[in-house]
Known about the structure:
7% strand; 2 domains; 6 strands; mainly alpha; single chain
Amino acid sequence: xxxxxxPLPQNVIRxxxxxxxFFHTVEPRxxxxxxxxxxxxxxxxxxxxxxxxxxxxxxxxAALVELExxxxxxxxxxxxxxxxxxxxxxxxDPAHNxxxxxxxxxxxxxxxxxxxxxxxxxxxxxxxxxxxxMAAIGGKLRPVFFIREAFQAVLSTMSGSVEGRQxxxxxxxxxxxxxxxxxxVHELMDHHGEFLRGDLKWRSSADLERAVQAALEKKIGxxxxxxxxxxxxxxxLEDWRRRKAADN
Length: 248
């Protein structure tokens, strides 16, 4: 079925980014697993000795398998959360500018290949990678998304982060320079482009999170929590994508 390139409404999180946020919340070793893959891959690329390269290739493959295993486990939990209605997936009817909720029962059954392949923002019952409810209007699949505020509220209950405790009134929340974050996101995305599953240095929003986290640490002298950075980059990232879509 044809896929539309409809712009998403404001204040939403697209399906692919939502899963990445979920994965980094429910898998405590997510950043460690991703970093291990990147470090071992870079060592393999830099190696000049055939014997050592063979050994490094094995360690890189083992790290990749461990990361994919963690993502697959998160995918199972993600599908269960969608089927139970914990997170409410939506699409937009462009003709009437209405946001429609997808049938949560459609997330039951086969889980598909999921993160073993490339996650995107489209689902339908017969999709081999990410089967789900019929998310089509007018004969075209529409990008799936979640209302950001509702999504983040549920996600925060799954995290033991400082930010999660601060939302409940414990401790003081640091205020970050959102304009600096917005500028950093746009510059990084302009430089690297959209995320690519096969690009180990720029495969998902987690790579953008780490880059912005490093920029903030350099600016303010302390490293903000990943969950904070994830929240800060969400809107600028969507703004960048809308700009790129308009340019095309």
